[in-house]
What we know:
Layout: H1 3-13, E1 19-23, H2 27-35, H3 43-54, E2 63-68, H4 70-73, H5 87-93, E3 97-101, E4 106-108, E5 116-118, H6 124-133, E6 138-145, H7 154-173, E7 177-184, H8 192-212, E8 221-222, H9 239-253, E9 260-263, H10 270-283, E10 289-294, H11 296-306, H12 313-331
Parallel strand pairs: 1-2, 1-10, 2-3, 3-6, 6-7, 7-8, 9-10
Antiparallel strand pairs: 4-5
Helix pairs in contact: 7-8, 8-9, 9-10, 10-11, 10-12, 11-12
InterPro entries: Aldolase_TIM, FBA_I
Pathway: Carbohydrate degradation; glycolysis; D-glyceraldehyde 3-phosphate and glycerone phosphate from D-glucose: step 4/4
Protein name: Probable fructose-bisphosphate aldolase class 1
Amino acid sequence: xxxxxxxxxxxxxxxxxxxxxxxxxxxxxxxxxxxxxxxxxxxxxxxxxxxxxxxxxxxxxxxxxxxxxxxxxxxxxxxxxxxxxxxxxxxxxxxxxxxxxxxxxxxxxxxxxxxxxxxxxxxxxxxxxxxxxxxxxxxxxxxxxxxxxxxxxxxxxxxxxxxxxxxxxxxxxxxxxxxxxxxxxxxxxxxxxxxxxxxxxxxxxxxxxxxxxxxxxxxxxxxxxxxxxxxxxxxxxxxxxxxxxxxxxxxxxxxxxxxxxxxxxxxxxxxxxxxxxxxxxxxxxxxxxxxxxxxxxxxxxxxxxxxxxxxxxxxxxxxxxxxxxxxxxxxxxxxxxxxxxx
Length: 342
């Protein structure tokens, strides 16, 4: 394990004004995203879309890393100008770190209705070695927790945190910066107070376990949810309320040695995610970089602009660059909703 390399890579991923593109949609997820715009998901169409994103001019100003799915990490760009280079090579040449999602997705947790466990530990060490050899600089593992009657249970929290901790230790062993993603889902009508309580419980247990596993905290990143009410909640929250609850919670449980927090967007709209990230960076001084690792919040409008048509690639790339730039401004607390119209 190269501790200095892990720490330096983690710092680069949360460099000032930059964030991470989550383009690691599983086969099932990208199928749903493409179906919404009337495009069939297959390896070629998936490659075509990811190439649109990765070759957008000037994104290296705002994007520090890209999380990829196994299929994408192995693919090559097409077109004479790319000379058959892999996506890993194209991103690396632009100073963007290639990353890889290494979990195998969630399955039902036996005897615990409405709860999930993330799989993928079997053969993980060997896969991490392979991904490192393919050029990956960092890795990611996602666990999900739903708020409901009596859930998340202690069993669900404990098992998922154990898996997250093992993933983190194995990634660092192979000089891959682990992005640890414990997501409290927005599904349901829970209050922001309930979300704060559950998020606190999960993160407190997570860092206790990570420390017990002797994880190098400066060589990892946390990818959490913002503290926010459920999508079915009737109470409309302001960005300030969300930011205050989020920072209050995180100051209690996230060690200062962690270099950065790269928020997920969850069920928020692109504009909501950007507004909330902006407010987080305006509110208070904290020991961590507050950045983004957005998937849908960076891609939703891009997909709707592209619609699977080659003639729309240029305007879709302009839309992607715009969203990346706006989130870069939010990292500095300089975003304003009026910029959406420019």
